[in-house]
Structures are given as structure tokens and as C-alpha cells.
Design goal:
This protein has 2 domains: about 350 residues, DD-peptidase/beta-lactamase superfamily (Beta-lactamase, 3-Layer(aba) Sandwich); about 100 residues, Roll (Nuclear Transport Factor 2, Chain: A), CATH 3.10.450. About 30% of the residues lie in helices and about 20% in strands. The strands form 5 sheets. A 6-stranded antiparallel sheet has the order 2-1-13-12-11-10, with helices on both faces. The protein has a 4-stranded antiparallel sheet with strand order 14-15-16-17. The longest helix is centred in the N-terminal third of the chain and has 18 residues. The two termini are about 35 Å apart.
């Protein structure tokens, strides 16, 4: 997103505090504290780090909970892995190189990274807006077996970017981490620098940010990621081997770091205003249909307010970043767990404090999902209904945790679909809500296309 032009004068203007900036009132701060505490308690998520921008400046930066077994007191200075929120920084790197005349967004990918399927007709722009047709290498919400071994960007492309395209470039929208791996390599080959070094030199240092690679963001001083199988114990997650997120999601930073970036967006600093606008412009498919995704960011109307947002999921971490450019507001929520909905629940609650907004949901098919859910709670999982990766996830321990935590709940009061079905990584994603007296669960599934498609993922998480 913002590639800075080394114009430190702009940075000085960007950090200036407007006189009319409003801090949160004691009542608002109490509501936020209660919101976060309840979300963490209800879901079992160990910690959250929050930053809020109001009137173009940071008015709240605070952390709650336990960030790791050796960090019992939460610090707002801890760097959380922000995963796919990183995509907007990769897109910003491309935009900076474009503005310097070193590439065009409409250049064919094959000019910079040979050997990609369809590379002669896929453009850089299509990599950034997810219309290239390259199959997503990580659509899961768990770690497939391959992620236990280190990988290079080239190895990811050898395995996924040389497959047949999922669709002709520009004809559909499908989220693809693979496309951003290609984009990261383009940045490196055009700039002559490692992607992380380029971002550090051109964006992070001028903005006063200090991110690190998520491959380096584990161990003492860093939040530990956590996992949970259904309603079982909250356990420390094993990080993936190095290399898996790269340009698709490699950054770890504080909530305040991300808030500083959001302020640059509001002020149209570092990048020309037209480049920011390009990033925030909806994608138009070849058919003329608009998609609410720009270049590394999602676009939405939230209660009548234009929002630029994105979420992130790393192994053991979830994050939400919402920016309201016209209102000069932003909400950053980072958590060290990849279960539950604490991050979104906290973010939406803070947005409602800033200005209430409505939420909506959709219905989708239920039968196959309910069948698997009933099998999990009774301990009778039919592995023939699962793909190889899903069978890898459902170890004996995981199955016991599902059975022992879901079984005692009895029959659910309701079991309904939430949100529309969507294609990702060659699978169909559908989500569900399961209601019990005083408790609600969330299910996130991926399944092979077709009536009898096997499940690639079936995760049950607490909602409240």
C-alpha cells in the first residue's frame, strides 16, 4: 500500500496531531475493556492487542491477557503475526516500483517470473486483485503436513503455480496466496533487494514502524500462537517451518505499527494520492461485474461508512484491520489464537462505539456439515468423507478433544449457515453457526466442489 517516497517532510505532516482529535471518554474506555475481556473469556483466546485511531491519531494502544507462557503480563509493544494484512504492503511495493517507472501493473507476469501457468496473459494487477486464476496454496485454517518443512517461494510456485489455472485471468475472483508469492518475487527481481529489506527501507523506517518477518517472530519476547480443537483445551501451537507466508503474509508487528500505516493511508502520505486511490478501487472482471476488493485490501460499506479493511490468519494468530479514511478512524485488533471470533468481535464492537453499524448474514446448504458435526460430537468420524489433509488434521487427540467437548453439549438448539459460499484454493468455503442454551459455536469448512465433495477442513470454534 504506501510505498514511501523518502519524503520525510510528508512524514512530519503525517504525525502532526490535529487539535480536534478526541480521546475516548472514561465510559468508552470502560466499554472497550469490558468488550475485550468478555471476548477473551467467552472464546478462550489468550490475549489481544488493540490500537484505535480517531481524528487521525492513535488514541488507544493496549494489550490484554497472556501473550505466551513466559509473558504473563500483556504488552502493547509485542509484535503479533498479521498474516494476510501484509498483502497491502506487498501491493504497495509494486505500486512504488510502478511510480518509479520500473514496471507497469499491466505487464505480463512472464516478463519477470517465467514458467508460471498462463504467465504470458496474467498481469501484475491480476496477481494483486486475486483474478489471476492461480490456485491458492493455503486455503486451510490449519497446518497441512507440508508446512512442517521449510519452503522457498520458488518451491511454492513449482507446486502450485504450474498447475492448470482455476479460471482464465480476469474472469473470476478467487483469493490466492500463490499470486502474492509471485508478486513478492517480482518486487525482489525488479528492485534488486529482498522484499523485507525493500519494505523496511522504503516504508517501515520512514513511518517509524519496526516489523519483523514472522519467521523470526517466535521465542522469548514474542507472543505464542495458540490452537484449540472444538471446545477442548487451549494449547500452544507449533509454528510452521520457515518460508510459508512470504509476500502473502510474512509480517509481524505491533498494533500501533499497523495504526501508523493506517494514518498514512488517511493522509495520502508517502504514496501519491492516485496510488492510494488505485489500491482502494473495486476490481472489475472481464464481464463488467465489480468485486469489492482492490489491490491487497477489501472494500466495504459499514453502516454507511466507506471502509478499507483486511483480515489475517497465521499459524496460531488472527487479526483484523479496519480503516475509515473519510472519518480518519481505524481499528486494529491482533490476537494470538487461530480459533474463535474474538478479533472480529472486538473490532466490530469498537466500530460500534465509534459509529454503530449493521451486520448481515446469508443462508447456505447444511446437510453434509451437520452430518460431520454429529459424527465429531459422537466420536464416530467417517474418514472417507475427508481429504488427505483433513485426515492429517484429525489426529486421535484432536478427535478426542472434539468428542469430549462437544458430546456433553447434547443436541444443538439450531444449526444454520452464515455468509455466502465462496471458492478458494479449489475448494468451496461455507461457514455455520451452532446454537446451544447460553453458547454459540462457529464452524468453518472447506470442501471439494460437487455434491459429494470431501471435506478439506472442518473446524469448530467458540463464538460466545
Amino acid at each position: 500500500m504506501t510505498m514511501l517516497r523518502a519524503l520525510f517532510v510528508l512524514f512530519v505532516a503525517f504525525v502532526a496531531l490535529p487539535a480536534e482529535a478526541r480521546d475516548f471518554t472514561p465510559d468508552e474506555l470502560a466499554r472497550i475493556d469490558r468488550l475485550v475481556q468478555e471476548a477473551l473469556t467467552d472464546t478462550g483466546v489468550p490475549s489481544a492487542s488493540v490500537a484505535v485511531v480517531r481524528d487521525g491519531r492513535i488514541v488507544l494502544a493496549r494489550a490484554w491477557g497472556r501473550q505466551s507462557p513466559t509473558m504473563p503480563v500483556a504488552s502493547a509493544d509485542a509484535r503479533y503475526q498479521i498474516a494476510s494484512i501484509s498483502k497491502q504492503f506487498t501491493a504497495a511495493a509494486i505500486l512504488l516500483l510502478r511510480d518509479e517507472g520500473k514496471l507497469s501493473l499491466d505487464d505480463p507476469v512472464a516478463r519477470y517470473v517465467p514458467g508460471i501457468t498462463g504467465g504470458e496473459r496474467i498481469t501484475i494487477r491480476q496477481l494483486l486483485n486475486h483474478t489471476a486464476g492461480l490456485q491458492d496454496y493455503w486455503p486451510h485454517d490449519y497446518s497441512p503436513a507440508a508446512m512442517s518443512r521449510p519452503v522457498t517461494p520458488e518451491q511454492i510456485l513449482d507446486r502450485w503455480a504450474r498447475k492448470p489455472l482455476d479460471f482464465e485471468p480476469g474472469t473470476q475472483w478467487q483469493y490466492s496466496n500463490t499470486g502474492y508469492v509471485v508478486a513478492g518475487l517480482i518486487v525482489e527481481r525488479v528492485s534488486g533487494q529482498r522484499l523485507m529489506d525493500f519494505l523496511r527501507d522504503r516504508i517501515f523506517r520512514p513511518l517509524g514502524m519496526d516489523p519483523v518477518s514472522q519467521d523470526d517472530a517466535s521465542g522469548p519476547g514474542f507472543p505464542a500462537g495458540y490452537r484449540r480443537a472444538a471446545l477442548g483445551p487451549v494449547r500452544v501451537e507449533t509454528p510452521p517451518a520457515c518460508g510459508w507466508l512470504y509476500a502473502a503474509g510474512e509480517l509481524a508487528m505491533t498494533a500501533s505499527d499497523l495504526a501508523r500505516w493506517n494514518i498514512a493511508r488517511m493522509n495520502r502520505a508517502l504514496l501519491p494520492a492516485r496510488a492510494w486511490q488505485e489500491q482502494e478501487t473495486a476490481t472489475i472482471l472481464n464481464s463488467g461485474m465489480a468485486v469489492n476488493y482492490g489491490l491487497g485490501v477489501q472494500l466495504a460499506d459499514m453502516g454507511g461508512h466507506r471502509a478499507v479493511l483486511h483480515g489475517g490468519e497465521a499459524v496460531g494468530f488472527l487479526s483484523t484491520n479496519i480503516v475509515f479514511p473519510e472519518e480518519r478512524e481505524a481499528v486494529v485488533v491482533l490476537v494470538n489464537a487461530w480459533f474463535g471470533n474474538a478479533h472480529d468481535r472486538i473490532a466490530r464492537g469498537i466500530v460500534d462505539i465509534l459509529h454503530p453499524q449493521a451486520q448481515a448474514g446469508d443462508e447456505a446448504a447444511l446437510a453434509a456439515a451437520r452430518r460431520i458435526y454429529d459424527q465429531l460430537r459422537s466420536g464416530t468420524l467417517d474418514r472417507a468423507l475427508l481429504t488427505e489433509n483433513a485426515n492429517h488434521y484429525f489426529t486421535e487427540e484432536v478427535q478426542r478433544d472434539y468428542r469430549d467437548s462437544l458430546g456433553p453439549l447434547g443436541e444443538p438448539r439450531d444449526f444454520v449457515a452464515s455468509g455466502p459460499a465462496r471458492l478458494r484454493g479449489g475448494f468451496v468455503n461455507r461457514n455455520y453457526r451452532v446454537g446451544y442454551e447460553g453458547r454459540q459455536l462457529v464452524i468453518v469448512t472447506y470442501a471439494e466442489p460437487g455434491e459429494n465433495g470431501r471435506f478439506e477442513q472442518f473446524l469448530v470454534m467458540p463464538s460466545s
